Structure formats: structure tokens, C-alpha cells
Amino acid sequence: MLGFLKNPVVVTAEINLNLVVLTVMGLISRLWGLSYPRAVVFDEVYYGQFVSLYMKRIFFVDDSGPPLGHMLLALGGYLGGFDGNFLWNRIGAEYSMNVPVWSLRFLPALAGALCIPLAYQILVELQFSHCAALGAALLILLENSLITQSRFMLLESILIFFILLAVLSYLKFYNLQRHSSFSGGWWFWLLLTGVACSCAVGVKYMGLFTYMLLLAIAGLHFWHMLGDRNLSNGGLARITQGQPLEVAYGSQITLRNVLGKPMQCWLHSHTNTYPIRYENGRGSSHQQQVTCYPFKDVNNWWIVKDPGMQQLVVSNPPRPVRHGHIVQLVHGITTRYLNTHDVAAPLSPHSQEVSCYIDYNISMPAQNLWRVEIVNRESDTDVWKTILSEVRFVHVNTSAVLKLSGASLPEWGYRQLEVVGEKLSKGYHQSMVWNVEEHRYGKSQEQKEREVELHSPTRMDISKNLSFMAKFTELQWKILTLKNEDTEHKYSSSALDWITMDTNIAYWLHPTSGAQIHLLGNVCTWASANIAAVVYTCLSLWYLIRRRRKIYDIPEDAWQLWVSAGQICVGGWVVNYLPFFLMEKTLFLYHYLPALTFQILLIPIVLQHLSDHLCRSLLSKSMFNALIVAWFSSVCFAYRTFSPVTYGEPLSVAELKDLRWKDSWNILIRKQ
Hints:
EC number: 2.4.1.109
Number of helices: 18
GO molecular function: dolichyl-phosphate-mannose-protein mannosyltransferase activity
Domain MIR: 244-307, 318-375, 379-439
Family: Belongs to the glycosyltransferase 39 family.
Protein name: Protein O-mannosyl-transferase 1
Oligomer: single chain
Radius of gyration: 30 Å
Distance between the termini: 87 Å
Shape: elongated
Structural class: alpha+beta
Strand content: 5-15%
Largest sheet: 6 strands, antiparallel
Number of strands: 14
């Protein structure tokens, strides 16, 4: 009965050493020294805000895109034990000890490393040689821009990983379709294709481009195979529903600045006062501080008061506040009135200080009347509404507008953001616009009862009345339709600059040494990718013209292989690059990286095709192989040359000047 135990149980497995070695090399190149620099690097200042909000479990709506990428970054923070307590307000700021830098950067780095074996497998599934596949993987491995982008808390490496995973999964599914349809593997790769495409779109809406490409290719494949056959409630409603829509006298509200930069924040006050005298010798009013605070807090609550009445509760029926009405804003916890006067702001001396008024019995009267102006009104009688209305507050006495300056206050202001009174004559800006995010009708006239009321939640539990799809649809629609202000940036660029890498981005600069990190690509690889695209296009047009005249220069199977490679690589480059010419947004070099990845995959495909079909003699093949070796050596040389600004190694002024291969590159050189 137990005779089968007489022989050992043997398990055999095939291990592709190429894949193992490439994966290890990828991990080393992306994970080595990952905690350096221990400072905020470029857009980490932006994504870090979302991580902190997730760590603190604070609801927010991000107008930059879908949430999956931010959630994955937050996962890194969660695994590292991050509590979310760090003020992301300045590039180059040193991380405090509670920030797990390595953990926060780990997932983007891991995704970047895994792109290397994915590139190898994609070329294998396209039926190209293992030598060509190895070449594609090595080019991805030695691409400086991809290394830089994957070593920090950024999203592009995660996006590229899911894009390549989707492409690989579809190719495996398609190859299984021809000989083992509806097998376990067939279903696995089909489902993984859908999951990877969804994840790509969930990281950035750019992932939709590759999703649509794969759908088009799948449609073409099935056309050949089958012939001729062929918002009401939701996400944001959790905030707005269960709250009054119309703001009335006596309403308790929180006010969020519409600009959302350098981070989203809410109008805030606390018991601390401005210093009597600042570090530069200027004096202040010594009134109660008013700031913009980037986290939800009970001190963010304000009461809308009618200047002609003393009550701080909503009457029955409520009296709505309309465009042009005069109000007073009373701080909920301290009951002091929002005030501004002809005293210079602490960090913006050309603007007025904003405070909550304290009566010191001196000749400084309260100036606390504000006119409500609804910026997006349809008529001059519009009612101020929760979420929907964008308002600015114009000071009656001085005509100054309540504005977020964006400057970070010193330690006495707890590094919170400065709020000022800006003269209206200086024009309109989103930093002057606020909207009501949370709202309740005040019911308690007594301060102690009101404090209890302010600490209580504003929302009713309405989840049981909303389906998941209703919430999801509403949230996605709001994200797509939220307005982003078009702004210029020192390192912004046009899509035309990317092909020839006429631009770069300085990500980080050491405060004392010459060490710096730049988003710069491997010059040899970028040029080779452009040449490969031109050669592929010209050869394809030549073959098409010749085939039209019934002249077949290459075998039919080679032609189908050539076309399939173009659908993936050239198609991937086109759909991830050309749409940027239609986008009205601030563009950066890193937006080109998904398109570049597809273009890099095309290089070994073109090289193998030239070797197999245009080099007919043994001598020509030998010469061509020698040229490939020389060319790859130049790729390695370019990689090593620019490695110091990829990994942030210290450089002398002379070494930095030597790296400026193009006059348009902004290599930062300190004056001696």
C-alpha cells in the first residue's frame, strides 16, 4: 500500500539564469543606497503630502489623478511604520528621524527593477532571440533616466511596471490562444492582462493609452481569427450629503484653499500669538495667529456671523448668505474674530497681517468685516453653497483679499502656512479663493456646548444608501473635472524637447558639496531609440510598397513578426507620446519615460532584423556584430559618465561642466 514511498519524490524546474541575473542586477542598480539623499527630492514634496494624509486617515480629494499610485506609496510608509508627521513643504528639506525613507522609496525602486526582466520576456514572447531579449533588458538596466525616476517616491516606475506587465500578459495569452485555448494558463494570463491594465490606469490616467492600444491589438487579432463576427450620488457625496447645502448666518464651516499648493490646507487659528518682534526686527500686532493648516483639526472650524446680531446659531428658518453679503468669521474654539489691518505680514511684508483680534485696550480697533464674493456665481444673487461655491473674502476696511501666501512660518508658527491680506488691485489668483468643505448648522449658543458640537462629526452614515459603483463613478468624475491651474515651472518643457533630450530636471542639490541628482537619460540610448524608430518606419514603408507590387523581400513569418513588434513597440511609443501635444498642462521630461521604454524595446528588434535579413554574407554579419559591440560599449560609457548625477555622487566644478553635453541642460554649478 505504501510502495510509492520506496522512491524519492523528485521535483524538476527550469531556471532561466538570464532572468535571474538580470533581476539581481536590476535590484542592485535600483536599491543600492536607496536612503540617500535623506532629503526631499523633487516631487517627493508633492506625493509625500498624500502619504501623510493616508497615514493619518484623513479624507481628501486629489485632483492629480487616480489614487492607486498614492496608495502604493502609502503602503511603503505603512510597512515602515510612518506616522505621517512630516511637513512636506520644501524640496531639499532634511527628513526627520520618524520618516522611513528606505521604505517609502522601496516600492517604486522594486517596480523599476522588475521592469528589466519584463522587457526580456516581452521580446521572447514576440518570438525574437534570447540575445535580442537580453539586449533590451540591458538597455533598460543602463538607462539613467529610468534609474533616477525609480529610486525616489515617484510614480512613473510603478506605471511603467504595470504597463509592461499588461503587455507581457497579453502576449502570453495570445500565444497560448493558438494551441491551448481555455486552459488554466490561458485564463490566468487573460485575467492578469485585465488586472495589470486596471492597475496602470489606477496609477495614472496615462495608463489608459496602453490599455486602449492592447484593446486595439486584441481586436485586430480576433478579427483575423473570427472573420466578420462579431451621476447623482457617490464619492464626494460622503462629504456633502448629510450636511446643509446653503451656508447661512450661524453656520459652522471649514474653509479649504482652492489652490492646493504647496499642499492642500484649511484656514486655521490657535491660541498662540504673533511674536512682538520678528527675527529681522520688524514688529507685529501680537494678535492671535491665523494660518493655513494641512491637516484636519478642530481649530479649522469657523462660524459665519451676521455683524448686526450677536447670536452664533442658525435661525429658523435659516438666513442664507449670498454674494456680496457682509459677514464676520468667528473662530469656533477661541471665539475671536478674523481680522486684518495695516500691519505687515510676518513673511510677506508687502501684504497685510491676518489675525484673530485680541482687545489689548490700545489704539488698534477691530477690523473684522468681510464681503463674500462668489467667484463662480451665475448671478449676483447666488447663495453661498457647500463645496460648490468658490468664494473670496474681501476686507471691508482695506479692500485686501484673504490669501494663502504659501510661505512656511518659522517654529513660532509651527511651520504652518502663512495667510495674508493681499490688495485686490494685484489681480485674481486661486490662492485667494476658498470653498466650504465641511458644514453644519450651529445649534449651541453657549461656548462649552458649542465646543462639544465642533468636535462632533459632520457627516451622517449614508453608505448604506449608496452603491459602490455610484461612489466610484462620482469620485472619478470629480477628479477628472476638478480645475487645475496652468502654471509654468522652471523645469517644465514641451513634448518636442523630449525626443532629443534638450531638457533635464534638477531633482536635488546638496547644500554644501557639488553632489546633485538630475533626470538625464543615457544619451546614446535615446539617440539609438530615435534612429531605430526611423529605420523601422522607413523599412516598413519600403516593404509595404514592394509587397503591393507582389515583391516579397522577407519571408511571410518574418513579416508577421516585424508587424507584431511594430504594433507593440511603435504603437506603444505613439500612444504614450503623441497625446501630450493635445494636453493643456504643465509637462516635464518624466512624462516621456513610458513612451521611451517602448522605443528602447524597438532597438534590439531592428538590430536583429538587420542582421537576419540585410546582412547576407558572413563578412557583413561579422562587421555588423562588431559595430553592435562598439555601440553597446558607448551605451555603457554614457551610463557610467552620467552615473554621478543619477546616484548623487560628489563632483567638482570641472566635472560638472564636463557633464553639460548640451547648452540647454541646466547643470547646477556653484559660483566659487
